[in-house]
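lol ok so funny story. i was supposed to be doing the assay writeup but got distracted and ended up predicting the structure for this chain instead. priorities right. anyway since i did it might as well share w the group, maybe its usefull for someone
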Amino acid sequence: MDIEQITILFLVMVFVAAEIYRALRSTRGTIVALDNTGLGELAPMFAVRVRLEEGREIDANLNFCTACIGRLKIGDDVRVCASRNGYVADLPWFRRKRCSTNSAENNRLCRSRTIS
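and the output, tada:
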């Protein structure tokens, strides 16, 4: 093995370890409200209200890039992690809900499965 392969292997191991650590410390929740302050692209994050699995509602920060990539909206599942600056919402690794008749109308991935 040369130094490039060792470096790539090391970086992949660090990424996997960090994601496992975050998965063990996070909890799932559902977005119940979006805070649109009207700042647009000036602020890198915006606030969302998340209902955790245990029923408690918290305020969390959501990165604009994460919201756009995941096309997040009210009712979508998120992974919530506690940080020094409060809670941070992130995309879950696996979706909890399957495509039902209610979510099939709103979810692009469900629509592509049910059209056939």
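Residues 107-116 have pLDDT under 50 and may be disordered. Residues 27-90 form a domain with the OB fold (Dihydrolipoamide Acetyltransferase, E2P) fold (CATH 2.40.50.840).
back to the writeup now i swear
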